[in-house]
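Give me structure tokens for this 752-residue protein.
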Amino acid sequence: MMLRVDLAKDDIELQNPARRELIKRGGLVVAFMWLGGASRVSGFAQGTRLDADHPQFAPNAFVRVGSDGSIQLVMPCIEMGQGAYTGQATLLAEELDVGLDQITVEHAPPNRALYSNPLLGDQATGGSTTIRFCWTSLRDAGAAARAMLVMAAAQRWKVDPAQCTVARGVVTHAATGRTLRYGELAEAAARVAPPAKPTLKDPKDFQLIGKPMRRVDTPGKVDGTLPFGIDIRVPGMKVATVRACPTFGGTLGAVDDSRARAIPGVLKVVKLDNAVAVVGEHFWAAKKGLEALDIRWNVGAGGNYSTEQLFKDLADASEHGTPIEAKNVGDVGKATGKVVSATYQLPLLAHATMEPINATVHVRPDGCDIWVGTQVPARCVDVAMRVTGLPAERIQVHNQYMGGGFGRRLFEDSVGQAVGIARQVEYPVKIIWTREEDIAQDRYRPAYLDRISATLDDQGKPVAWTDRTTGASVMATFAPPAMGKNGLDPDLVECAAELPYEIPNMRVEWVRHDMPNGVPIGWWRGVGPTHNVFVVESFIDELAHAAGKDPVEYRRAILGDNPRAKAVLELAVEKSGWGREAVPARHGRGIALAAPFGSYLCVVTDVEVSPQGEVMLRRAVAVVDCGTVVNPNTVEAQIQGGLVFGWSAAMYSGITLKNGAVEQRNFNDYRVMRLNQTPPIDVHLMPSKETPGGIGETGTVMAMPSLTNAIFAATGVRLRTLPIDRSMLVQDKEALKSAVAASSTLPTGRLA
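Here you go.
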């Protein structure tokens, strides 16, 4: 099956021509509105014809059936490799009774009033929310459109609509065999009142939902015909690259650009408050010009800040700060028994998307056009308004496909910088960050420190549980209305405040400690659960060891009444062969169980650890209950990709600070897993009739604890800091003792 994807064209005069043509042709528009997770279907007033005099109806998303038979879906959730467009189109096509190849999908324009994500209160794609929030709304829209088209056919034939059937956009009168295509019915259907409550299909009648579907954007990505942001070319465009002050909070001092201006192809040197850019005829000229600049930076107050200081500050805040309560059940202070305690810490993390940060901008006296791959198109308009002084209606954002988002493109800082550069030249300019700039000027996943303890009864079960998380809040700056009344960041405690286990006395709290000295933070794939599930599932393994229990048996014993969690655990045990065979020396098998984003997962990871401390992944088994599965292929791919992303971070990735600046610069010192390091990954999906849960980030969440628990099984070394320090895993006992002792003085957790 093939889906036509209508992209923003390079020439701004040709922007969205297919959409304008659809409006001119007339037809049926069905809209759906997100209302706190519920949907409301609406249409144009009866008798309204859509033509050049009636511009498009603009709900959160809309479905339009043109008189030529074309079907168009404008989607608020952005495609960034997670299969969003395929999934959303599948929901619509299922209820509309058409094929995926009959639908054109278009990026939604910036408009908060119409396209805001209910979770974040903004026009944003993230948090594994796409299918969860479109599950009802898009099917309602498709079912309503189908009902209106069938009614139009029935009225023309003067028959009961119940006598009509639909297949691939053709309405058939069963008794006479007469047929009408959707395009022939579109204008008449626009005069039909939309149903107040559309009738959705019984799941047993699904033709598309739950079936393996090929990703509709794959062919264009493989053959290069589908452009990413970095591919955009605009007539008259020049290219720039930029360098910001390496010290966070610092500013630009003086610049000697004499050598840069002498380089062929260099056109202009542009100064900003905390950065300098070189504009050239092409990227190479701009890059060579930037390298030739003699720059003096004003370092600022953060010039002495380091990773060591960061973790010292976190430890001090954890001990002396004022906690915000996330959960308090029972009385943890009255529980008696064996107490097990541990401290975990996780590093700053960069996103390292394969497509580096870029934007193409043309600022004119009468307007501003921005071509960029972004998760937050409306915020790009906001920042352009601030920089240019232009009103919102004069700013156009042409969203593009992204070579990875992972949360980095939820932030518009780079777009503001690009607009600031573009407003100082008279032509369109594409700004491309080098990989070094991309890593050194990221919005980092915050560092965290957890102090966690449990009291065990005489059977080794936890009767009390205390978890204190200390770290910065991304939500507090990105979406303040989403913060709790007591100042709690709900994302920061997801999968920490609510566990799949039955523990009678629990206290979970957060100490807010904002990053000092201008260190920028942001969401990272998996958001809060990537930190919390690592801590919780590692500690559950510690409790199993303290109780002398097998990690699987221990989890079985404390799950309580949680059938979905039990089901994924049991299937993972079966498929992985847990406990059925002896494991060779220096081999280990680790398990992790959690319920992030409304889905239940259990992952078993097998590793081998060499005598030199090298960790080799051998196999992984993932069992997933994400409710009703829309596209099994997408779920499998997202679990596999998420696991690799999480393993990569656990094994190699960590941002460290020295003298107020990031030490890492490229993939040589901020490594990612290679294909030859990736093990076979078996993904098993649980059949379910539940509402869909999120899937795009769940693999990342499960990767880290399943890996470190496997390493413990192989070596007996418990890893409470990431990334993995190989020196702790060497086989020589004396060297191991020295490494363990030294680790207490290495708060960075960096890979040796």
